[in-house]
Amino acid sequence: MGQFLNMIDAAPAAEKWPLVRRLMMRERETFFAEMRAERPVLELPDNIAFITRYADCTMVLQRWHDFGVDLYKPKQGDYFMAQDDTADHWRDKSIMKSILDFEDLPELRSFVGQEAARILRDARGAIDAPQQLTRMVPCKLVQERFGFTGSDPRKLITWSYWNQTDAFHNQPFDRDVISDPDHVVAERKKAGIHLALYLGRVMIARWLQLKLHRNRNDSVTRLMRLSASKGVKFPLKKVLFNAGGLLIGTIETTSVTVNNALDELLRRPDMLARARAAAANPDHTEFDGYVVEALRFNPAFPYFFRTCHTPTQLAGGTPHAVTVQPGTTVIACTHSAMFDGEAYADATVFDPRRTMYQTFTLGYGHHECLGRAIATIMIPEIVRQLLLLPNLRAEGSVVYQYGVPEHFPLRWDA
Predict the structure, then answer these.
(1) Which of 16, 151, 251, 385 could serve as 116's disulfide partner, Cβ 3.0–4.6 Å?
(2) pLDDT tens digit sequence for 37-87
(3) Cα(335)–Cα(300) distance, rounded to whole angstroms?
(4) Model pTM?
(5) Which residues contact 403 (CB under 8 A, 6 or more apart)?
(6) Average pLDDT of 251-255?
């Protein structure tokens, strides 16, 4: 048996999952390799199963009838992402994808690049990335393109932050890292009230503009027009929920992903030099590959969690097969899955030729990221603007709070 399994087996029950979490974050490749080889389904106290193989992770994330998003429900209520195979999920997600026009991607990338460049130009050689850049750029996109016009950016960031924190970092199995879970819940509820009140005012303004035929071309207006048409079942309550989801899903996830990718590249001088050279190329395809691969090594979400509904065998066909039972929380460690040699050629090699669609960076299966298309241009473009700066360097480590970057001091030659 390997060294990590010996440590886990010897640990007291209450310490096993916290230990696994630490190993997952600090040891990465060697820990994952041992788990995949010796215990790909690690059964832990509190009815948790930690899985690490590509085949098992993809099966769990694909089979939503057997593995559901039950733990999202207390955090997200009736929002479609807290549902699996329901009419609301299929209809709402289809509507939201359709109003995020795919053909606008080149224009959106230009918008993001210009805004990031402006912020960096004004920073004059030093910036705290999460506080001044990586939240502010997606916030500007939400304001100008999604319809949150005239809003206070700090409030938008706060509303996104607490909703993301509660949904993804304040689950029952997070008690080892969240000292006051009730505080997080209270902040999320408060943020939800303020967000709803703000969106209510925006929706009234958009309704008046529609009546006066002064149409805007932002996401909230598109949703209002659709609701008013009665062409599909999409009442005003749905407009409010789904417009709020655009905000919540954009700011914080973009920030953590950009910071993780940049941090990984700055730790790899050889790849950093190549990425900088590629950043100056008008064709961004090559450059984007460096960001994608950096996120394979340092993902924003190293795992996704599901609740088992149907007795299901995992690690089937191996000597380590285990049948998980209904009610089990299955933690699908997609970070490990992206280093599984059965699915990835030269899995431990940093290869910028890989694409976003070969990774779990934006989720997988039924609950893949709604904003996948926008994320694939916004995240690398913000990183690209940073790498265009002369002699960009980190002045300290990324400081995380509640699982997301709060501080990352950067400097360059202004």
Answers:
(1) 385
(2) 999 999 999 999 999 999 999 999 999 999 999 999 999 999 999 999 899
(3) 10
(4) 0.95
(5) 165, 168, 169, 177, 256
(6) 96
In single-letter form, the type of residue at position 317 comes to: G
Sequence-ordered list of residues with C-beta below 8 angstroms from that of 342, at least 6 positions apart, any chain: 53, 54, 55
Q: What is the mean pLDDT of residues 108-133?
A: 97
> How many distinct structural domains can be found in the chain?
1
Count of CB atoms within 10 A of residue 204's CB? 10
pLDDT, tens digit (0-9, with 9 covering 90-100), for 351-383: 999 988 889 999 998 899 988 999 999 999 999
Within a domain: 186: yes
Asked whether residue 414 carries a pLDDT value surpassing 90, the answer given is no
Overall size of the chain counted in residues: 414
Decide if 108 contacts 145 (C-beta within 8 A): yes
Dihedral angle over CA of 221, 223, 224, 226, nearest 10: 120
| Dihedral angle, C-alpha 169, 139, 73, 235, nearest 10 ° | 180
Q: Is residue 412 part of a domain?
A: no
Tokens at 129, concatenated = 């990335």
The two beta strands, 329-332 and 48-51, are parallel
Place of tokens 């900088």: 276
Contact criterion met (CB below 8 Å) for 362 and 376? yes
CATH of the domain at 90: 1.10.630.10
Q: Looking at the predicted structure, is the pLDDT value of residue 390 above 80?
A: yes
Q: Kindly report the number of other CB atoms within 10 A of residue 300's CB atom.
A: 22
CA torsion 207-210-214-215 (nearest 10°) is: 100
Look at residue 124 and tell me if it is in a domain: yes
Parent domain of 157: 3-77+84-403
Task: State whether residue 392 is helix, strand or coil.
Answer: coil
Give CA–CA dist 90/67, Å, rounded: 17
Reported confidence tier of residue 110, pLDDT bands at 50, 70, 90: very high
pLDDT at residue 213, as a whole number: 81
